[in-house]
Design brief:
single chain; about 450 residues; Rossmann fold; 17 helices; 12 strands; about 50% helix; globular; binds NADPH dihydro-nicotinamide-adenine-dinucleotide phosphate; binds (2Z)-2-iminopentanedioic acid
């Protein structure tokens, strides 16, 4: 068995080889703590150094992106694509536009994506890309020019059998469409090279909803295993973008009471609960007006805005972090647990830091890690690829049912690999090992490549 000393040694080597990349170290540690002991008990993986090889991305492309703003000024940004592993399918994963994007963040996201995509059961490898471009306050034309400039270089590195990007923070339907339009112009091919496209040009029903819906489906399955359900549960959601909006939608449909959403300026607390009508207003504020979340108060003045605060201090039964990495720290987790929170399902990637996860696990509450809970988005991206290859479009019902089944399968895989002797399920351990095994077996079959 791998010991704490072996884990420490392994991490020291990783940190030495990847200096100044704390998010990448954090993501690898989270997986290594479970996969190293598993590998030690399964020597075929150890002999072939499978996990060590998986901590080195296949390649990282980094490039200059120049564009012109509305004032005619030249702007220079950095673009990246981290192609982490194509062991079980073409590289697949989103593109993030946010001013805090670094190589470390994209390496952590690409690493996580490989395990997540494996869990979906679909043939997709892992990758992630993005830029330190800040889309906030930019005009529509500026967004278009940036997306075109970004794709002009990225187009050399992607393709429907090579690498299929999609959206992530700061990249939604509008940005995917500008990038798809530019790829089509450059390559002169109409092909499923991006997912999250518009419905009239190769996009899939349910892709917009998939991540948020899946996060709630996963919570539903965890609760059902304990003979419980979502009805009447008070829920905290962070973020107010794509994932948060559709998590809120599914929670409302399931009879839960959603008390919060948030953005980087603070938390909106609506003690009466966010209804379907209020959610429609949030979608309008965020997608059409591109306003800040506190604009909600202009229409619903009984709600409260808590500037610079996260939702985690408000008493509730369940929490759904759907904004960004490391948004739930140890003290946040302690507050949640002290207030009686019984379950956490992660919509964002790596929203809980190590201290927070320790708190959840010691309290033995239901904790669904992002690579399992938010896999619904990339799963429906995989179904978009299938539909593009077959040149057909499945119906909304068909896709929602497929999403539901995929989320249930992921839950079962986590239970299979994560159940301890006392019957308690460690969903993080289950997701890490189940995600690893499929990729590892493919790598074993290929030999040393
Ligand atoms: P959006 O850009 O649609 O929304 C992001 C939301 O998170 C906004 O409300 C934003 O607020 C908030 N946010 C972003 N960065 C920060 C920050 N540094 N601090 C506080 N709040 C922040 O992105 P998505 O909803 O698509 O993505 C949200 C999370 O879900 C990310 O972690 C992403 O990786 C993950 N995810 C997304 C999937 C998808 O299909 N889109 C699939 C799986 C995971 P503000 O506007 O103020 O920045
Ligand atoms: O983190 C994620 O899984 C995503 N941003 C979605 C990736 C995708 O290819 O749909």
């Amino acid at each position: 068995m791998a010991t704490t000393a072996q884990l420490d040694d392994f991490m020291q080597g990783l940190i030495r080889r990847n200096p100044g990349e704390p998010e990448f170290h954090q993501a690898v540690y989270e997986v290594a703590q479970h996969v190293l002991p598993y590998v030690a008990a399964n020597p075929k993986y150890e002999r072939e150094q499978i996990f060590q090889r998986l901590t080195e991305p296949d390649r990282i492309v980094s490039f200059r992106v120049c564009w012109e703003d509305d004032k005619g000024q030249v702007r220079t940004q950095r673009g990246y694509r981290v192609q982490h592993s194509n062991a079980i399918g073409p590289y697949k994963g989103g593109i993030r536009f946010h001013d805090n994007v670094t190589q470390s963040i994209l390496k952590f996201l690409a690493f996580e994506q490989t395990f997540k995509n494996s869990l979906t059961g679909l043939p997709m490898g892992g990758g992630k890309g993005g830029s330190d471009f800040n889309p906030k306050g930019k005009s529509d034309r500026e967004i278009m020019r940036f997306c075109q400039a970004f794709m002009t270089e990225l187009s050399r590195h992607i393709g429907p059998f090579t690498d299929v990007p999609a959206g992530d923070i700061g990249v939604g339907g509008r940005e995917v469409s500008y990038m798809f339009g530019q790829y089509k112009r450059l390559v002169n091919e109409f092909t499923g090279v991006l997912t999250g496209k518009g419905l009239s040009y190769g996009g899939s029903e349910i892709r917009t909803e998939a991540t948020g819906y899946g996060v709630v489906y996963f919570m539903e399955d965890m609760l059902a295993r304990q003979g419980d359900g979502l009805k009447g549960k008070r829920c905290l959601v962070s973020g107010s973008g794509n994932v948060a909006q559709y998590a809120v939608e599914k929670l409302i449909q399931s009879g839960a009471v959603v008390l919060t959403v948030s953005d980087s300026s603070g938390t909106l607390y609506d003690p009466d609960g966010i209804t379907a009508e209020k959610l429609a207003h949030i979608k309008h504020l965020k997608e059409v007006q591109r306003a800040r979340i506190n604009a909600y108060l202009d229409t619903y003045p009984k709600a409260e805005f808590l500037p610079d605060r996260k939702p985690w201090g408000i008493p509730a039964d369940l929490a759904f972090p759907c904004a960004t990495q490391n948004e739930v720290l140890g003290e946040d987790a302690q507050q949640l647990v002290a207030n009686g929170c019984r379950g956490v399902s992660e919509g964002a990637n790596m929203p809980s830091n190590k201290d927070a996860i320790d708190v959840f696990q010691q309290a033995r509450i239901l904790y669904a890690p992002s690579k399992a809970a938010n896999a619904g988005g990339v799963a429906v991206s995989g179904l978009e690829m299938t539909q593009n290859s077959m040149r057909i479009s499945w119906s909304r019902d068909e896709l929602n049912q497929r999403l539901r089944v995929i989320m249930r399968d992921i839950h079962e895989k986590c239970v299979r690999y994560g159940t301890g002797d006392d019957g308690h399920v460690d969903y993080l351990k289950g997701a890490n090992i189940a995600g690893f095994v499929k990729v590892a077996d493919a790598m074993l079959a290929y030999g040393i490549v």
